[in-house]
Write a sequence for this structure.
């Protein structure tokens, strides 16, 4: 089960009741079994004698029903009997066990947002969201023996007194800046002590980097058996979680009206132990350091898993290319590259396309790089056949996703032909996924954008895909497609995951599939989910899909087509060979097969069944990490 832990910092143990209530509103709650009888606290004495008569903090006032009135009378009788017995034995100090049972109601949700309900040994109990314990097993104050006495207060108080909170508060005071995280950080319950310590250290160091922490959590969870088998990997993992180089810089550019704008640029050269860095450049308003580190970390593992060993990097800017003229984008790209060029090169870092960066943007970036660096490096760019390497560079990632899905289905004695497929996104990757699905005889029925999704019950064909590309090139809405094809429909503010399907391809952005989306996918009959974007599922969604035995193809394995194409480009230029599209596609298929086999082998080597939902996910991380760990060990502490 996944437990939420708020990123809001700044509480202290001396809060009054009103402050506690207000603070609890910022915490996130996972509520199960509403209306069940919950054992709030079971354990030996030292309880507050006034607890039985005290009201719940922040509980709403309401008229009691007859049943509740009867319960309160019984509680009053029990309390009176207890008081009488205490009067009869004043000289005897006897530790008693107290059991307080209340009904978990929906109206308590706001009060208990710092807690959650789960079943322990067949009994529903209220757990603390911080230490993941209940009742007397609740962690005590690490700075002393005193501790909260009632479960109603303990979770919030123990959060204030925990080492994690103390460290976060120290960092906040040092920076004089309030750290607020809108999204919850989820911590896995079933995690070994050593693996948990790695995650806790990351939380202490970067408590506000939500995307990066989520990526680290998923990797650490996958590596639990590896770390348990050899403790030396703990130190290597700690080194791996710190990027080798982080570059943050100002990007000033002038729009067509002559107004100067300022954006922030990022480049995280995450790890070069395997070779020169390769990674995308993303232009999107949501881009920040946390996203850059998360993308760099994922790219490092992806590159290590591929047959061609490269280091990992990622970067970009919070610049939004939508609605900008060609001249404005050119001026921005030139300003961006004026700072970045000194860190790039064939033996240093070779950037590639990512969200918001296509052929046009890469052309402008390369032109400025060539001008400043004074040499021509064609593999820097990619999409243009006449000044880059392979002829299938833009299609590589999308085609690789379909090849990977076909490999998974082959092991299940199935094929893509005739299967109903749902695709999210409408960018380069999504369009190339549609193309290859049609070539394999599948029936792709959907695409999506930031405003909603389009579904065509007849399925897409090559002519329809060409029409979709025209719509996107003209920056029109996907809704215009339904004006031409009557059997299609566009849904506003919705996602395609409730459409009936056999295979789903998530090609939009990170965390696009949340808990409710995962439930919709399971109910729609999906059996295979292929990750085209990095980390498309939230932790809750991953748990739901695994429980439903939905096979997940992780992005670091299924999305390795771009890495393969980039390395083939470099080899192409070095050897001056000419590859036809058929030759390139054959090499891409071979590379994807090797990647798939490596992930499966690593999973089985560490005890995961090949058919289990987590086999590919854990196997991909394990294989990539062991490759990087060996290189880092050989090269020493650098």
């Amino acid at each position: 089960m996944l437990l939420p832990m708020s990123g809001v910092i700044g509480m202290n143990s001396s809060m009054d009741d009103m402050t506690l209530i207000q603070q609890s509103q910022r915490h996130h709650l996972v509520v199960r079994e509403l209306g069940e009888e919950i054992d709030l606290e079971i354990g030996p004495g030292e309880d507050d004698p006034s607890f039985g008569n005290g009201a719940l903090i922040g509980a709403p006032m309401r008229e009691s029903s007859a049943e509740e009135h009867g319960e309160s009378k019984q509680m009053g009788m029990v309390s009176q009997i207890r008081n009488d017995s205490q009067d009869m034995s004043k000289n005897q100090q006897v530790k008693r066990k107290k059991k307080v049972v209340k009904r978990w109601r929906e109206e308590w949700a706001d009060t208990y947002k710092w807690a959650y309900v789960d079943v322990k040994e067949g009994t529903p109990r209220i757990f603390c969201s911080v230490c993941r314990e209940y009742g007397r097993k609740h962690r005590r104050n690490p700075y002393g023996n005193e501790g909260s006495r009632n479960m109603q207060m303990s979770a919030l108080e123990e959060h204030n007194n925990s080492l994690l909170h103390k460290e976060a508060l120290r960092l906040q005071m040092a920076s004089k800046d309030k750290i607020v995280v809108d999204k919850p950080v989820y911590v896995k319950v079933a995690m070994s002590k050593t693996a948990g310590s790695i995650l806790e250290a990351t939380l202490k160091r970067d408590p506000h980097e939500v995307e990066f922490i989520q990526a680290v959590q998923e990797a650490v969870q996958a590596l639990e058996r590896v770390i348990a088998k050899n403790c030396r990997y703990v130190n290597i993992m700690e080194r791996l979680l710190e990027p080798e180089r982080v570059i943050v810089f100002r990007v000033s550019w002038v729009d067509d009206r002559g107004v100067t704008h300022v954006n922030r640029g990022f480049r995280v050269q995450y790890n070069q132990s395997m070779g020169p860095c390769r990674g995308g450049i993303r232009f999107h308003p949501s881009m920040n350091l946390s996203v850059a580190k998360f993308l760099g970390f994922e790219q490092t593992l992806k590159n290590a898993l591929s047959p061609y060993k490269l280091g990992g990097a990622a970067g970009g800017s919070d610049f939004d290319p939508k609605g900008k003229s060609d001249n404005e984008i050119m001026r921005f790209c030139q300003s961006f590259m004026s700072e970045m060029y000194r860190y790039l090169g064939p033996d240093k870092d070779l950037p590639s396309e990512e969200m918001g960066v296509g052929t046009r943007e890469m052309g402008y970036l390369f032109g400025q790089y060539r001008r400043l660096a004074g040499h021509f490096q064609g593999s820097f760019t990619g999409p243009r056949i006449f000044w880059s390497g392979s002829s299938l560079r833009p299609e590589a990632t999308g085609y690789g996703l379909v090849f990977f899905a076909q490999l998974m289905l082959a092991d299940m004695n199935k094929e893509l032909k005739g299967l109903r497929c749902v695709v999210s996104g409408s960018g380069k990757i999504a369009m190339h996924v549609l193309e290859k699905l049609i070539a394999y005889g599948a029936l792709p029925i959907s695409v999506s954008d930031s405003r909603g999704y389009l579904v065509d019950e007849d399925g897409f064909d090559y002519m329809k895909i060409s029409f979709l590309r025209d719509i996107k090139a003209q920056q029109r809405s996907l809704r215009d497609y339904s004006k031409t094809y009557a059997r299609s429909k566009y849904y506003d503010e919705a996602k395609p995951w409730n459409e009936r399907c056999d295979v789903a391809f998530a090609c939009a952005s990170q965390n696009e599939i949340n808990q409710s989306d995962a439930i919709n996918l399971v109910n729609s009959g999906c059996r295979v989910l292929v990750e085209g974007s990095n980390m498309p599922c939230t932790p809750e969604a991953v748990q739901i899909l695994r429980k439903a035995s939905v096979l997940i193809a992780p992005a670091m394995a299924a999305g390795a087509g771009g890495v393969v194409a980039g390395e083939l480009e470099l080899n192409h230029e070095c050897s001056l060979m000419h590859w036809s599209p058929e030759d390139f596609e054959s090499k891409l298929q071979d590379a994807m097969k090797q990647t798939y086999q490596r992930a499966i082998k690593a999973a089985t080597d560490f005890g995961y069944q090949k058919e289990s939902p987590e086999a590919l996910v854990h196997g991909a991380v394990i294989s990539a990490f062991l490759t990087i760990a060996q290189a880092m060990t050989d090269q020493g502490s650098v």
User: Anything to note?
Assistant: The chain has 21 helices and 19 strands. Residues 395-633 form a domain with the Rossmann fold fold (CATH 3.40.50.720).
